[in-house]
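Pipeline run #58 for the internal structure catalog. This entry was flagged by the ingest filter as a single-chain record with no existing model, so it goes straight to prediction. Upstream metadata was stripped on purpose; only the residue string is passed forward. Reviewer on rotation: M.T. Logging verbosity set to normal.
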Amino acid sequence: MFRSMSGFKAQYYYLTVYVISEFNEWRVLIYGPATTIHGTHQFSEAKAKEHAMAVARSYIHDQKHEELPVLPEMTWVPTGPEDWLVWG
């Protein structure tokens, strides 16, 4: 089953970061080359964005040890009709 995402997306270097509204929670999803990260569910949009940025930073700088400057913020834009989730 396909459904359009309702929420926000941003880039943290080569990672695409989504915070998606699901009923009364926000889901955090991060995609990159050969990488899919599911963050923990959050109960507000602001907390979901904070969590998403923390996970993306941790992955790039702590896990992968990339020599990239830490970005102070991400630019969030609303998801659109081209953003889809697949649920079984």
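catalog note: The chain is about 20% helix and 40% strand.
catalog note: The CA atoms of residues 11 and 64 lie 17 Å apart.
status: ready for reviewer M.T.
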